[in-house]
Amino acid sequence: MRVLLAEDDPLLGDGLCAGLRQLGFAVDWVRDGVAAERELCSGSYAAAVLDLGLPRQDGLDVLRAARAQGLATPVLVLTARDAVPQRVQGLDLGADDYVIKPIDLSELAARLRALVRRAHGQVQDELHARDVVLQPATRRVLQDGQEVTLSTREFDLLQALMLGAGRVLTREQLEQHLYSWGHEVESNAVEVHIHRLRRKLGTELIQTVRGVGYAIATGAAA
């Protein structure tokens, strides 16, 4: 899933980017509040990690502006251990969760997965569609109890479709989920990944809505 990281500390930001990418996240990193507000309000992200002490524009102001525009993207705030008033204010302004510095990367990743899951109305830590089970934490996919090996892009695409079960996702929406800045996207990339997923998981799981996009099949497998 694609997340926005707003952090001005170069060492911390670099470490979080590298760590989250290693755990399967696509990360875009901005270093000031003006850029954070611009990117967050684009609505291109599954979630955002927001430091409050940003230059040019405070993180609380970024959060306030995003929520004033009706943006529902889950936001996880980074705060210092002694910044209780800031944490309270951030939650009141619409933050969904917070992590205290120094940051444990595994906790941060777990909280991001939980925020995205809840934002899509999912209460379990596994995603289910017909005979397929997707486990975000371990990045495993099972079909009829048997593990299916997927590439990184195939897994991320399947996760996006399963999170959006009941909705049709356009190619542009799926590209936003898959690719962070600096990645050249081939015009048929999504179609290629869909084809490979169908080859591995069967043709019935992912439906094509002609002229619109793709949707995950619901109901029991035939």
Low-confidence segments:
none
State the order of secondary-structure elements, H for helix, E for strand: EHEHEHEHEHEEEEHHHEE
Give the termini distance in whole angstroms.
30 Å
Q: What would the average pLDDT be, to the nearest integer?
A: 90
User: From the alpha-carbon coordinates, what is the Rg to the nearest angstrom?
Assistant: 18 Å
Helix content: 40-55%
DSSP strand tally: 11
Beta-strand percent range: 15-25%
Major sheet characteristics: 5 strands, parallel
Q: List the total number of helices.
A: 8
C-alpha geometry: elongated
What does this protein structure show overall?
This protein has 222 residues and is of the alpha/beta class. 40% of the residues lie in helices and 20% in strands. It has eight helices and eleven strands. It has a five-stranded parallel beta sheet with strand order 2-1-3-4-5, sandwiched between helices. The longest helix is centred in the middle third of the chain and has 15 residues. The two termini are 30 Å apart. The model has no long low-confidence stretch (mean pLDDT 90).
Explain the layout of strands and helices.
Elements: E1 2-6, H1 10-22, E2 26-30, H2 33-40, E3 47-51, H3 59-68, E4 75-79, H4 84-93, E5 97-100, H5 105-119, E6 127-129, E7 132-135, E8 140-143, E9 146-147, H6 152-163, H7 171-178, H8 189-201, E10 206-209, E11 213-216
Parallel strand pairs: 1-2, 1-3, 3-4, 4-5
Antiparallel strand pairs: 6-7, 7-8, 8-9, 10-11
Entry keywords:
222 residues; alpha/beta; five-stranded parallel β-sheet; four-stranded antiparallel β-sheet; 11 strands; 20% strand; elongated
